[in-house]
Amino acid sequence: xxxxxxxxxxxAQPRPDVAGAVAAAREYDLAVTLVGDQARVExxxxxxxxxxxxxxxxxxxxxxxxDDKPGQVGRTKPQSSMHVGMQLVRDGAADAFVSAGNTGAAxxxxxxxxxxxxxxxxxxALASIVSIQGxxxxxxxxxxxxxxxxxxxxxxGWMGSIYAERALGCASPRVGLLSNGEEVxxxxxxxxxxxxxxxxxxxxxxxxxxxxxxxxxxxxxxVMDGFAGNVFIKTLEAFGTTLFDLxxxxxxxxxxxxLGGLLVRPxxxxxxxxxxxxxxxxxxxxxxxxVVIIGHGRSNTLAIKxxxxxxxxxxxxxxxxxxRQYAPDVSNEE
Amino acid sequence: xxxxxxxxxxxAQPRPDVAGAVAAAREYDLAVTLVGDQARVExxxxxxxxxxxxxxxxxxxxxxxxDDKPGQVGRTKPQSSMHVGMQLVRDGAADAFVSAGNTGAAxxxxxxxxxxxxxxxxxxALASIVSIQGxxxxxxxxxxxxxxxxxxxxxxGWMGSIYAERALGCASPRVGLLSNGEEVxxxxxxxxxxxxxxxxxxxxxxxxxxxxxxxxxxxxxxVMDGFAGNVFIKTLEAFGTTLFDLxxxxxxxxxxxxLGGLLVRPxxxxxxxxxxxxxxxxxxxxxxxxVVIIGHGRSNTLAIKxxxxxxxxxxxxxxxxxxRQYAPDVSNEE
Lengths: 334, 334
Fold this sequence. Notes:
CATH topology of chain A: Isopropylmalate Dehydrogenase
Helix content of chain A: 40-55%
Structural class of chain A: alpha/beta
Number of strands of chain A: 11
Oligomer: homodimer
Mean pLDDT of chain A: 91
Largest interface: A-B, 69 and 69 residues
CATH class of chain A: Alpha Beta
Largest sheet of chain A: 11 strands, mixed
Number of domains of chain A: 1
Low-confidence stretches of chain A: none
Strand content of chain A: 15-25%
Strand order of the largest sheet of chain A: 3-2-1-4-11-10-5-6-9-7-8
Shape of chain A: globular
């Protein structure tokens, strides 16, 4: 198996990207191709002991930044590391692509220029794996499609189910549909129509769920439109940061809190690890003709390494072929 | 000023409802009317020293439960404490209504049966006041309207702005519109159209915001449709609970954590207080011909008392009259 890693993806590129790729090649015994500015990547590689590792570098003279417009960068930077890396997967020279770069750009380059959607898939979905208290939940869509149709949500449901089963090893994944509390509204027309489709779709659909059910592990897959999903995931991130900052501040407040703070530090690290996005890996793009995993821009070496492992698991689980089997025999809707 | 408190609202009714009403009458020097099953309310009142307080009881033989269907309960239980209480406000016998009961039922009874919408208001909004690190932010809509039109969101913007200014004392409230990250999608068509309207609407509109800006206090009012708002607020609640549970567990893990846990307890209480919904009060319903504040079902005495204070502040700030002044001179859209 060969995994392509975008050397120019993370905010601190190419350092964590290269270090994570090297660590993954060693730890998982994988062939890894680093794509990026050849000179910079090789300079960075020289900092590592790489003897015996199946590492290669493919030159890509351009790279995508967080400021690049997703809809344009496929045309304005056709030799970006993302573009070249995904081409390697498209052409069968590699099995998966990992990047900690601009998510919107990766989605556009994949969908419009390189890997393209699997036949019959209406829209690719950006998924996120949230793991709290040991329960891994596949959330999708978390931002690729702000406005969705019911059929798209239903596809997200079975694509997420395939991912949970084949990449995460979850038997008969329970699929829930994010809805607002029944005590106030009754779900949007979109949610109602999607629920009807999911009932008939052959997945293990357990019905509508609220955020607390997602966080308590009552589902293995949570389906949502990309707007609500983006709000959900960003609220988790923002509130986690806010709470940990508050706790840190309050533990500096007086001698008693300071002393206690020293003592509880290991307990806190354990809590933090259980909710820290870095531990979970990257966001898979589902519905494309190839495995693509997008990491956080602020990914460190560990996060990149984990994203490579995630890509390996998706390749071993034959996610792409399995989605192909389930996709309806229709041409892609535009 | 006279505030009506639903004695039969909270999960543990009538105990916290009556206790909170008594505490509010004493602390804020208000006239308070308790509406509910007369015998039960008077029995509960007898537990308190009420000498010198302006308290009265109005009998309402029925009450709404969390299982009652919001759309039907106005007809099936026309003598519920919610119904009777809102009628008192509608008829000018009181200035505001406070309940910790079924939010959807309160909305339906207010909109369809008693207070009705202010002329020119498309839809009433359910607002929530979130206060983190000392910044109070008015969020609306958090669940009254799962599907919205751009004009409704624009009205939520200026209704929220009026509330922030006149009930919370915030000068020139900064209004933001919840959107998904620009790095992936570009906001829904709804968000785009609402942003255009808010630009022209005379409020201090600072543009689109993400959850982290809401939590960091970059806005005083955050506008959103009721589906996204419900997801946002419930994600905060669920993640807060999850994190505090995790911390509690980990602090029981070994002697070092246990000892540290004892020492950091006061610091933790301060953190908890800063993010605890009870401290913030209830959810105002905006756009009705009367002040209505809905508390959490699990409200305790303090929460009820705070909700009464919030109702008083809204009455003193002349929220209803001010919204009336700004409402367009059109009949209500159905």
